[in-house]
Amino acid sequence: MSEALSLGTEKLLAHVDDHGIGWIVFNQPERHNALSLEMWQGLADALAAFSGRDDVRIAVMRGAGGKAFVSGADISEFDSQRANAAQKEAYGRIAGEANRWLARFEKPLIALIEGYCIGGGLATALAADIRFATPDSRFGIPAAKLGLGYEYDGLAKLARIVGPSRARDILFSARFMAADEAHGMGLINFVVSREDIEAEVVDYARRIADNAPLTVKAAKFALNAFERGGRQQDVEQAAVLVDACFDSEDYKEGRRAFAAKRTPQFRGR
Q: Where in the chain are the domains?
């Protein structure tokens, strides 16, 4: 039975399905799901809620309407929400909190991309661990055509994924890329037809949800630590998380299930 979350906005929807998948839907299709201030707030609230629930094993982000994942920031709000330095700071606090949740979300996160994935939408998708896209999806960061500046963290993430040379091309040219080119440079993991993408994502997410949560958590932390440069405190914390796996009831269950040739039932403890 699907359970909807109350986020105080209709522009970002969230629910938990009966297989432990938390769904986040950017729901402003008339603007190609451009991110408004209340959507940034809703994204932070949804990720915080999923983070605190043991029954949520994995989360999936997608856009409503089938024409866009997210087409960037909602520029129509700029005159009212980002017209001066004070408003920019207030806007930045809310968007920054959402981006911090994307960066520190401990559970696996998938982006299901149909259509445009542009600007802040691409940055949001890159915060996911795995990205699926339809063949007609389009990717780009048109900041240079708008006079916008991009923060260091977002640019560093892009460069880590595609390499500095390709990142320069994407940012300096502000051009759009087709899904096959984006796949070739590692921006997305899988290209799947529109007819099959939702079923493929659900199947993939369920396979992850069935795995040992502590093992997946430890692996995600270690990989994120590697991306950050392998700082000593991160290496030490990664070791703590590995020890937690070996001390867990799930490790015992995994061994018992292997010996009995049955499917393990992991509990995340």
A: 3-209, 212-260
pLDDT in tens, 183-193: 999 999 999 99
CB atoms within 10 A of CB 153: 14
pLDDT confidence bin for 86, thresholds 50/70/90: confident
Q: Are 55 and 20 in contact (CB under 8 A)?
A: yes
DSSP letter, residue 268: -
What is the pairing mode between strands 190-191 and 138-140? unpaired
pTM of the model: 0.93
What three-state secondary structure class fits 263? Answer: coil
Is the CATH code 1.10.12 the one for domain 212-260?
yes
Q: Where are the alpha helices (DSSP H) in the chain?
A: 37-51, 78-81, 85-104, 120-126, 143-146, 152-162, 164-173, 179-184, 197-210, 213-227, 232-246, 249-260
Q: In what order do the strands lie in the sheet with 138-140?
A: 68-70, 116-118, 138-140, 177-178
> Rounded distance, CA 132 to CA 192, Å?
7
- Fold observed for domain 3-209: 2-enoyl-CoA Hydratase; Chain A, domain 1 (3.90.226)
What does the pLDDT average to over 252-257? 90
3-state class (DSSP) for residue 13: strand
Closest CA to 126 of 140, 115, 142, 136: 140
- Phi first, then psi: give them for residue 108, nearest 5 degrees: -60, 145
Buried b (16+ CB within 10 A) or exposed e, 3-17: eebebebebbbbebb
pLDDT for 228: 84
